[in-house]
Design brief:
The structure is a homodimer. The first copy, chain A, is of the alpha+beta class. Chain A has 20 helices and 20 strands. In chain A, a hairpin with a 5-residue loop joins strand 12 and strand 13. The radius of gyration of chain A is 30 Å and the shape is elongated. At the A-B interface, helix 1, strand 1, strand 2, helix 3 and strand 5 of A face helix 1, strand 1, strand 2, helix 3 and strand 5 of B.
Amino acid sequence: MSGDKVSRPRARLPRGFRDRGAAEIVAERACLDTIRKVYESYGFEPLETPAFEYTDALGKFLPDLDRPNEGVFSLQDDDSQWMSLRYDLTAPLARYVAENFQNLPKPFRRYQVGPVWRNEKPGPGRYREFTQFDADTVGSNSPSADAELLMMTCDVLEKLGLAPGEYVIKFNTREILDGLLNELGLTELSKRITVLRALDKYDRLGERGVKALLGKGRTDESGDHTTGAGLAEEQIDQIMMLFEVGQQPSDLSFDELPDWEKQDSAYSYSSFDQKLGGFVNEVYSSRQPGALPISNKNTIALLRSWLPKTETINRACQQLEQISDIVRARHFGSKRIRFDPSIIRGLEYYTGPVFEAQLTFPVTNDAGETVVFGSVAGGGRYDDLVARFTGQQVPATGISIGVSRLLSALRSRSKPALAPLVVVLSLDDPQSSFRMAAELRAAGIRAETYVGTKKFGDQLKYADKRGASVAVIEGGDEREKGQVTLKDLALGAEMSKSIENRADWIKGRAAQVSVARGALVETVRAMLHVKGS
Amino acid sequence: MSGDKVSRPRARLPRGFRDRGAAEIVAERACLDTIRKVYESYGFEPLETPAFEYTDALGKFLPDLDRPNEGVFSLQDDDSQWMSLRYDLTAPLARYVAENFQNLPKPFRRYQVGPVWRNEKPGPGRYREFTQFDADTVGSNSPSADAELLMMTCDVLEKLGLAPGEYVIKFNTREILDGLLNELGLTELSKRITVLRALDKYDRLGERGVKALLGKGRTDESGDHTTGAGLAEEQIDQIMMLFEVGQQPSDLSFDELPDWEKQDSAYSYSSFDQKLGGFVNEVYSSRQPGALPISNKNTIALLRSWLPKTETINRACQQLEQISDIVRARHFGSKRIRFDPSIIRGLEYYTGPVFEAQLTFPVTNDAGETVVFGSVAGGGRYDDLVARFTGQQVPATGISIGVSRLLSALRSRSKPALAPLVVVLSLDDPQSSFRMAAELRAAGIRAETYVGTKKFGDQLKYADKRGASVAVIEGGDEREKGQVTLKDLALGAEMSKSIENRADWIKGRAAQVSVARGALVETVRAMLHVKGS
């Protein structure tokens, strides 16, 4: 009852999608377990929303999307309503909170892990399906909630094996930029969004590219032109100043030490100070000009001294100070959690503090080349997202870990793997083979019975290809004698490299032993142990 | 920079989709971990294919679909190619194997877990997104491969807490029906598919309904008419005989006992025997008519004696016997793994053995009503699915566990839960609260800092609503004295039910203690321990 075979489909994946094998899945599982344990230990509980949401419920918040539905995968349900696959886990959370607000504890703290889909142009290493792991606190406008997410992310990254200094979690608040744009007279929403997106491209386009996008526009290598925000040069210079502060060298952070304030330091804000015309000197006149130790508190103070004194900016700086104080009290200094006013985040819905976790060590790609690695986690406060549905503001803040990106960066470091495998060959008595595999499994050993062709050679080749550690062989003669042969495949493979004379050949025999059938489990256990597993 | 608020979307989920909360997710995670461990112990390794496949690669194998794309969610990529969300995990596996055949070990054994999507009419308890957990062996035509899946599924279900007899895994082969239809002269493919689908509805429609679908057709309660296969009454009777054999009572299985053959038995195939006109007597003349103990071997033998003697049926029966012998050798008797010739499975692509796991205990729904519970796992052999792509047959067999269904059936049995939670209130010194929570976490206790409003009442209410076991309270006075108050919320809640006199009130005080700040962790640990966690 099989289908017709006249025209055959080609076996291939849609563009931008990929299959993943055991090594990557096992590594991801270990990573997800670690994140989950940290999130749960902080009191976040799991929630799962479905893959689909109504398109209007998701909203359009992806960067670089001017046309409706671009960026998301959408289709019409049979009642003609448009549904879309989620492009992140935040928009569905806002829908969930709006729908269930009355019954939720306040604040509501949940985590969610799962795939998200982006209908974007695929490219090398750029997939249209990837895993995110989010934690959000909904219903609190306290900077405590933001600060906690920063600390929790540090805990996650360190539990994943990163040392402080191998990553840095940067924070800022959108309200700094908001206040600055207000002062520069840029009130038009569409223009503000253009500025926002231009700034978010700093990592990719650098100072020159961003300046072009803030001004007259930019033509890329392929000849595509992006219209700029049309700002005046002076306005551009003011905004670009935010990046000066962000450019502290990453190894110049002393305030991990509880007594950092006592440290003398030659490190300084000198570049920033120079640009600002000696602000450090003015503000901290008791210190040597430009030689103030770097700390979040100092950076915030310096920026504040330079920024316009408006209500928005004042409130923003107070929030930044509160966040800074809380993380400082738990000894998370600027080496791990750093204020950086150039952090913007591309998503439009952020309203306050924004965060971004970056790796500071060189990451190599599949080709062994060192690549510039962007953020592995990001998030921020989105106080208006629930109000989209209800009209009532519900403050909320969250962070999302890009698991796929993080994993590819950590690939060279830890390699969680499946337990060693034993393959029981199946020669003339499959029932006996199944019994042996079952005995091994009962002893906690991963063991499979070969279920393919009857050829001995195929079976051994299979065990090799599977990377099995031990092959169990029971021929008819052996069974009669109550014996079974165990082949140590890992050892055998190693020895076969150097079989050049008889002495080696004799050693090679040690990779294979015959034992009593009753000694199967204990012998296999010993063989696996010998190899340190 | 929030969006406009003129017209607000309504917060609601698309039809047929649902959100899932912590209790269900934690239970599912425990379930998936168990299945994964069993599958891995048998040597199956994980594979993940993406959510999308090209529509032509998925094929159209869903039951009850006469129109193209019905049953699946499909959309056009920007290069106009049609993509669909996977409706199962088997079709993507066939695509994967066809694409990567050269590099795979043979047989190739993989498991995959993940959501699948069906574009079906939603109904109560019937969702359009659900989780499947599949294991497949590709590249082996040996009945060993089928038998192994049956035994592995037993292991899974028993590791999940089911006792033998609380479930039964039934097996059959499509070739029995194929052979029978050949003999009845029903060679037309579309007619055969109609018969297949009619038989697969036996559980839902019963004998009468199936007979109608095999004959002139059936009009359901809503007045909808389904055209029948148009078979003659005699043909229908022949086919329906398969169901007679399947109706052994589930508690009449003796061959779990290694020495079953010695057992005398009053149980019998009498109903079947009667219909067949004394076949048992004829075939097993040495025994009392109709009093043959029930076993897979006997059932297969009886059926074989009755079925037409064709090559297809002969081969089918041999396969069934081989499967039966292998599982029997590992003491999986017909109480756990049972031959039942009425098992058909709705999917069109099966070519040989088919399997179905059923629960035999009464399952209650949310309303407390006992419901008839269908299969929780199913699968079979699909030797032609890879050939759809390559033209070359690659034998394959697999089983899929319907995790969502299985979980809802097991709901009343085991309740894996998150570890008990401690909420640290945050009154006037959030930094101190964060430190306390961090200390508790470092001791392995799930502890969160309250990050919402400053009101004491709100905070306690929150801890209650979250189901926290202990609340940690540190007011300004207490901090000065170096103390902290611990409220045992679980104990307090229990006591508050019976506070009627002063004595009770005094006991109630025990639910709250003040201890030295340095004794925080050890006291909380003791409080959690007291409650047996």
